[in-house]
Amino acid sequence: MPFTRPTLALTLVAAAIALSACSRPAPSEEPIRAVKVVTVGVEGMRSGGEFAGEVRARVESRLGFRVGGKIVRRQAELGQRVRAGEVLAQLDPQDYQLAAQAAKAQVNAAQTNRDLAAADFKRFSDLREKNFISSAELERRDAALKAAQAQLDQALAQGAAQGNQAAYTTLVADVSGVVTAVEAEPGQVVAAGTPVVRIAQDGPRDVVFAVPEDKVSQIKLGTAVDVRPWGATAALKGAVREVAASADPVTRTFAVKVSLPTQDALALGATVAVLPHALDRSGTPVIKLPTSALRQDGQSSAVWVLDTASMTVKLQPIEIATADGNDVVVAAGLQPGMQVVSAGVHVLSPGQKVSVYKEKKAPALVNTAQDATKSVATPASAAK
Question: What is the pLDDT of residue 255?
Answer without folding.
Answer: 94
